[in-house]
Amino acid sequence: MASTATRTASSPVARARDAGDAVAAGAGRVPPAVRTAGLAMAGLAGGIAIGAGAASRRRSLLPKPRPKVLGVPIGRKPAPLVAAKSLAGTAKQLGRSSGKLTRTAEDIHEIRRQLEQSNRRSPIEVVLDGLTHRRGVHRDSG
């Protein structure tokens, strides 16, 4: 029986389990941001490996070109192409919206800064500052 236990402990399954336990123990001590980056890199490497394996079959995976009559494509557009264009449009709109949101947040911060600054000064200082500074020239200087 001792020989069976020794054989089981040195089997590839047991060694793989021990290696997995060691990786899991090490991953538990890694900060979450580093762990996330590592998982993203592993996913990227896996995608590259799968893509390299499918490179020989890639021609059959791509949609066939649409037939043309007098240079104008006829028939329906392939579904992946329609989905990709829709996703691209959504991404552009999201980018524009995030830019507007960023500008709005910057404006709010500027207004808050100006309010805090005006609350610290006497009313005479505020009036004199308004009379002596041109609008928009001294935006960031205090």
What does this structure look like?
The protein is an all-alpha fold. The protein has a domain at 99-135. The protein is built from 6 helices and 2 strands. The chain has helices at 2-9, 12-28, 32-53, 58-61, 79-120, 123-132; strands spanning 68-69, 72-73. A hairpin with a 2-residue loop joins β1 and β2 (72-73). The termini are far apart. Residues 1-7 have low confidence and may be disordered.
Summary tags:
mainly alpha; 6 helices; 73% helix; flat
Biggest sheet strand line-up: 1-2
Determine Rg (CA atoms, Å). Answer: 31 Å
**Mean pLDDT level:** 75
Q: Assign the structural class, choosing from mainly alpha, mainly beta, alpha/beta, alpha+beta, or little secondary structure.
A: mainly alpha
| Beta strand % | under 5%
Strand tally, please? 2
Cα shape: flat
How many helices in DSSP terms?
6
Q: Can you summarize the main beta sheet?
A: 2 strands, antiparallel
The helix content is over 70%
